[in-house]
Design goal:
The complex is a heterodimer of chains A (217) and B (481). With 217 residues, chain A is α/β, with parallel strands linked by helices. Chain A is built from nine helices and five strands, in the order H-H-H-H-E-H-E-H-E-H-E-H-E-H. Chain A has a five-stranded parallel sheet with strand order 2-1-3-4-5, with helices on both faces. The model of chain A has no long low-confidence stretch (mean pLDDT 93). With 481 residues, chain B is α/β, with parallel strands linked by helices. In chain B, the strands form five sheets. Chain B has an eight-stranded parallel sheet. In chain B, strands 2-3-1-12 form a four-stranded mixed sheet. In chain B, helix 5 packs parallel to helix 6, helix 7 packs across helix 8 and helix 8 crosses helix 9. Chain B is globular, with a radius of gyration of 23 Å. The chains are: A alpha/beta (217), B alpha/beta (481). At the A-B interface, helix 5 of A face helix 7 of B.
């Protein structure tokens, strides 16, 4: 019964069917199954498998994005129950991401977010056109291991520097590792503005985060 | 003679795409992060939500804007005398702009570019016969990012006599560029004899950033030519379908056209675009994919339907080195450009998606461009070229080398490539590969070619204008390069 439900959860996540995942998670609660077990053996297991499939070229990004959304839909249904049980999901780390102020490009950082989620990280996505102060507040509020800033235009990459300055001025710089990315950015640029890391593509961002947090896979 | 051409849409489909694009402008609208532009759109009849920064643009504004738009856009050379006309079915080839990496032709190393690399690219482009427009190809790393957009223009204006495709990364970019243009052709001629065209890139889907919108408004005011460059990524920032990408790009272009033509009627606007394939296996934006050819050919048909000139990125390769992929992708692109009447085929020399410039690729692209342009010229058919007389004279077993007809016509009929190897087989097996020939050619141009210098007084004015700009950023002395 439990195993069957987990399998159905996995299938629904893999299909990116948020509605079905939510329904199944309600069933988890009704039947008194440990919510953490459902998350780990159902939701997360599915997303990790799909991530592997994508790396082998057997799944596409659109599948990953839909699956990550479905996983999050499931987690939000189980959230209260999980809190009651006093257990926590064991993420590999916590990452805050966003596109810097003045830049309305969403896609780069969303991809990074999805790939990090499929690699087992908790991701807090601040969206696009994020003011410096909002990054600062997010560091305070969520206490993440990593902050990732995206800039997709030559016109907006300068804002990455300003945002790092703002985090410094708030006295939070040593509490968090900062990574930057986006088409016009380079390794040199990242060093110049005092970031801890840079990755040339969404695909390589996961490896960068792993490296910065000392995670071996 | 039939001019060789391709059409990827029938007339009904063109009309249908136009209808869907205007429907999106009217119902969904365009987000514009620029209050002045939004106010202007509201004043002329658009429905504007200032909180959401979204303008819904009715079709009659689009029609009026298209009526005001010029059907040809003239790009001057630096001398203010020679020019090219972007119009009709003419195709001109243009170096790709704003790469952040340089593929060193001597070492094959991929590295950050320096100002002198940009000057080298400008000099090579100046010498190439089938590369008609130079661009601010590289973003040099030896100049602060705050002013590098204008510095590139200065370096290229000093090192190349051809028109320059460029863009501003800053709010003050265009007014400063107008000063640089003015220093060369005279202040009164900035809008009359502009030798720069600006890339104006909306942020797909359906958004315009404040800087891009400011650049568009400024260019329209100065009457400096622009190409508006929607860049939908199939399945990323645009629909996965080819037709959907065309609809979206068209809507974004039309929004920019409305802003430009209601800011300054007759503003020189080119229908641009850099559509790409979003490769879902890797999350990459690919410009060398064959579907990009379908999208750009379709966009060109839309431009012709509207009666405006067009410019699309058809020459960029996704290759990571000057390898066979780096030439075969632009070879498709060049053919599609000439056959679909794209007026500016953008991206010569460019690879690494849009991130790198290679001189090896640039000189090979020039042979590709020459070949494509020859194909587009088609077959001349008349009494002379049908050659019945000379066939009769030569008769069975005759040798055509002996006839004047051959001397007259061979060179007219053929494109003579500089690099593509047509030599006999070397008995020692020492034939050069294309890349070796290309490198030798780059070396030869850099050693032997001299760019027509600017008259000394003009050069002094240009230097002064650049230094004035640099001083605003606390750079007191002209950087050396």
């Amino acid at each position: 019964m439990k195993e069957e439900l987990f399998n159905r959860l996995k299938e629904a996540v893999t299909n990116g069917d948020s509605e079905e995942v939510s329904k199944l998670c309600e069933r988890v609660i009704e039947t008194g199954i440990d919510p953490l077990e459902a998350i780990e053996k159902g939701l997360v297991a599915a997303i990790l498998e799909l991530g592997d499939k994508w790396e082998r070229g057997e799944a596409f990004l659109a599948d990953l994005v839909a699956a990550a959304d479905a996983m999050k839909a499931g987690i939000s249904v189980l959230k209260n129950e999980l809190a009651k049980s006093g257990k926590n999901i064991e993420y590999r780390g916590k990452v805050v991401i966003g596109t810097v102020e003045g830049d309305i490009h969403d896609i780069g950082k969303t991809l990074v977010g999805t790939l990090l989620e499929t690699a087992g990280f908790e991701v807090i996505d601040l969206g696009a056109d994020v003011p410096r102060q909002k990054f600062v507040e997010a560091v305070r509020q969520y206490n993440p291991d990593i902050v990732g800033m995206s800039a997709l235009m030559t016109t907006t990459m300068l804002e990455q520097k300003e945002t790092i300055e703002a985090i410094k001025q708030a006295g939070l710089r040593d509490k968090v590792k900062i990574i930057v990315g986006g088409a016009p950015t380079t390794d040199d640029w990242a060093k110049k503005i005092g970031a801890d890391g840079w990755a040339p593509s969404a695909m390589s961002a996961v490896g960068l985060v792993d490296r910065l947090l000392g995670i071996k896979r | 003679m039939v001019r060789p051409r391709i059409e990827v849409l029938d007339k009904e489909e063109v009309l249908e795409i136009h209808r869907r694009s205007t429907s999106i402008l009217n119902r969904v609208g365009i987000k514009i992060d620029h209050t002045e532009a939004l106010k202007m759109l509201k004043n002329i009849g658009a429905e504007v939500d200032f909180d959401k920064k979204v303008a819904k643009i009715p079709e009659y504004l689009v029609k009026e804007a298209l009526k005001r738009a010029p059907s040809s856009v003239r790009l001057y050379h630096r001398d203010g005398k020679q020019y090219i006309d972007l119009c009709g079915w003419n195709t001109y080839f243009d170096v790709g702009s704003a790469a952040i990496y340089y593929l060193d032709w001597k070492t094959d190393e991929i590295r950050r570019p320096l100002s002198r690399d940009l000057a080298d690219v400008a000099k090579v482009a100046d010498a190439l016969p089938n590369t008609h427009i130079m661009s601010t190809a590289l973003v040099p790393a030896d100049i602060p990012e705050t002013v590098v957009d204008r510095w590139r223009m200065y370096v290229v204006a000093k090192s190349c006599s051809k028109p320059i495709d460029t863009g501003a990364f800053t709010m003050e970019g265009v007014p400063d560029a107008a000063k640089l243009i003015g220093a060369v052709v005279g202040e009164e001629n900035v809008g009359k004899k502009p030798f720069m065209i600006f890339a104006i890139c909306p942020s797909d889907p359906l958004q315009w950033s404040d800087i891009t919108m400011q650049n568009l408004l400024d260019c329209a005011k100065y009457r400096i030519p622009v190409h508006i460059i929607p860049m939908p990524q199939t399945g990323g920032t645009g629909p996965a379908t080819i037709a959907g990408s065309v609809v979206q790009a068209n809507a974004e272009f039309l929004a920019g056209m409305v802003v430009a033509q209601f800011t300054n009627p007759g503003a020189p606007v080119v229908y641009g675009g850099s559509p790409c394939v979003f490769d879902q296996r890797f999350g990459t934006n690919c410009l060398g994919s064959i579907e990009v050819g379908l999208i750009t050919a379709a966009l060109s048909q839309l431009a012709k339907f509207y009666g405006v000139p067009c410019a699309y990125y058809t020459m960029v390769s996704d290759a990571k080195a000057a390898d066979p992929q780096a030439s075969l992708e632009p070879a498709f692109g060049a053919m599609i450009a000439v056959l679909s009447g794209i007026n500016m085929a953008v991206g010569s020399g460019m690879l690494l998606q849009e991130n790198g410039i290679s001189l090896v690729k640039l000189v090979i692209d020039d042979d590709i461009a020459g070949s494509a342009l020859r194909f587009a010229r088609g077959i001349q058919v008349d009494a002379e070229t049908l050659a019945e007389k000379v066939i009769e004279e030569a008769g069975p077993g005759g040798l055509f080398l002996k006839y004047k007809h051959t001397r007259d016509w061979w060179k007219k009929e053929h494109f003579i490539p500089k690099l593509l190897d047509k030599r006999p087989v070397d008995p020692q097996g020492k034939s050069k590969t294309l890349n070796t020939a290309a490198k030798e050619y780059v070396e030869k141009i850099l050693k032997e070619h001299s760019v027509e210098p600017l008259p000394p007084d003009i050069e002094k004015d240009l230097d002064r204008a650049m230094l004035d700009i640099l001083k605003k950023y606390k750079i007191e002395e002209m950087p050396r390069w």
